[in-house]
Amino acid sequence: xxxxxxxxxxxxxxxxxxxxxxxxxxxxxxxxxxxxxxxxxxxxxxxxxxxxxxxxxxxxxxxxxxxxxxxxxxxxxxxxxxxxxxxxxxxxxxxxxxxxxxxxxxxxxxxxxxxxxxxxxxxxxxxxxxxxxxxxxxxxxxxxxxxxxxxxxxxxxxxxxxxxxxxxxxxxxxxxxxxxxxxxxx
Length: 186
Description:
Elements: E1 2-8, H1 14-26, E2 31-36, H2 44-52, E3 58-61, H3 64-67, H4 71-84, E4 87-90, E5 95-96, H5 100-133, H6 143-146, H7 148-156, H8 161-168, H9 172-185
Parallel strand pairs: 1-2, 1-3, 3-4
Antiparallel strand pairs: 4-5
Family: Belongs to the site-specific recombinase resolvase family.
Organism: Azospirillum argentinense
GO molecular function: DNA binding; DNA strand exchange activity
């Protein structure tokens, strides 16, 4: 059986999400598991997909990064499917792990992607450190904290916390934090 898995990181990526599903269906995939979730968080549809696969099935993904974000995770998924007798096919790379060559190529691609990600993060850290030295980087401005005087004013006027949050475009927890800090400093 051909089984597909489609994923995007956010709900904003509608076109890419629908394109993955359409591509899988055009290939004759009989069952598609799809979700919009970060690769780093919980992915219940991926778990369901991996549980669903049986001996002789092939899991098809349009791109490897839709399935895995690291070599370790890829190996974990592959080993799990290998024990079940299932294979993985990655369309954009032409990889089919039903062969030893396909598995090797997939592992190399995942390793290169992980290496690139580590380099990017290192360059980002270096850039931020340099910007801090020059006084050009102070981090994100705390949006809600700047609104604390308005929170206190609205509360004194009898506005309830949920309404304050809605009016100011901040979270209820920020409203309660402002009220707690004002009470503690009084």
